[in-house]
């Protein structure tokens, strides 16, 4: 084995973005499940590795990194044979970084703002504002894609992996309207053709959607 351990849950979109990257790089790794509902992430053993008590957490032979966006960039920089997934060219890297930061600050936050109140306080209602944030996320992805097959051009990058992991989870709250967002729908279908997509993201995304879609009500 490579000595790489990924801590998380497969229903977690950020964890799945890391799994997509690991699979794309053809890296062997051990997956350690961290049950958030059981409080595994707040146990002392885990807190010693990640005091922020979040998943995913990567342990690369003793090097500890958390936050999915930091993890996927690290993995490509360290292990990739080329820079296609995370370009070294400053302009192209900045463009991929924009997609990563969009996921972190807008797309995933639209998801978190709905699911966190549900898991933490059993809030089952989705306000119109929160629903609009999800739709705004779909709309921005539609714009980003433009005439390209992927978010930054002709080939997928870690920006696609992070945004797709989140976008494939958002139908738990608001369905992706294929007529309104045809480019996003086609982009996700295109990513599904990757040989590692189903195991790395597809299974977990469906579990997430199935777990939540009938438990929440749109106001």
Describe this structure in words.
It is a single chain. The termini are far apart. The longest helix is centred in the middle third of the chain and has 32 residues, at 90-121. The protein has helices spanning 13-24, 44-49, 68-79, 90-121, 128-145, 158-167, 182-192, 197-212; strands at residues 4-8, 30-33, 57-60, 63-66, 125-126, 217-218. It is globular, with a radius of gyration of 17 Å. Strand 1, helix 1 and strand 2 form a beta-alpha-beta unit. Helix 1 (13-24) packs parallel to helix 3, helix 1 packs antiparallel against helix 6 (158-167) and helix 5 packs across helix 7 (182-192). The protein is of the alpha/beta class and 219 residues long.
Can you count the helices? 8
Distance between the amino and carboxyl termini: 49 Å
Alpha-carbon Rg, integer? 17 Å
- Overall morphology: globular
Overall pLDDT confidence: 96
Could you give the order of strands across the largest sheet?
2-1-3-4
Query: What's the helix-strand series?
Result: EHEHEEHHEHHHHE
Portion in strands: 5-15%
The description of the largest β-sheet is:
4 strands, mixed
Low-confidence stretches: none
Estimated structural class: alpha/beta
Question: How many E strands?
Answer: 6
Name the helicity range: 40-55%
């Amino acid at each position: 084995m490579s000595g790489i351990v990924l801590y998380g849950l497969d229903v977690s979109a950020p964890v799945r973005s890391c799994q997509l990257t690991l699979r794309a790089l053809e890296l062997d790794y051990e997956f350690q499940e961290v049950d958030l509902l059981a409080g595994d992430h707040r146990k002392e053993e885990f807190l010693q590795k990640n005091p922020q008590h979040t998943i995913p957490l990567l342990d690369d032979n003793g090097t500890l990194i958390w936050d999915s966006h930091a993890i996927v960039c690290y993995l490509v920089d360290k292990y990739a044979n080329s820079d296609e997934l995370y370009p070294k060219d400053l302009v192209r890297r900045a463009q991929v970084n924009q997609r990563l930061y969009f996921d972190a600050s807008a797309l995933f936050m639209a998801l978190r703002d709905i699911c966190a109140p549900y898991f933490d306080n059993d809030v089952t209602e989705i306000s119109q504002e929160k629903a609009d944030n999800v739709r705004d996320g779909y709309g921005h992805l539609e714009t980003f894609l433009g005439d390209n097959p992927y978010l930054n051009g002709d080939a997928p990058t870690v920006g696609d992996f992070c945004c797709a992991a989140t976008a494939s989870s958002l139908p738990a709250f608001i369905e992706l309207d294929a007529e309104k967002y045809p480019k996003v729908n086609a982009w996700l279908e295109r990513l599904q053709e990757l040989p590692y997509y189903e195991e790395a993201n597809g299974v977990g995304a469906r579990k997430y959607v199935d777990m939540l879609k009938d438990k929440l009500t749109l106001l």
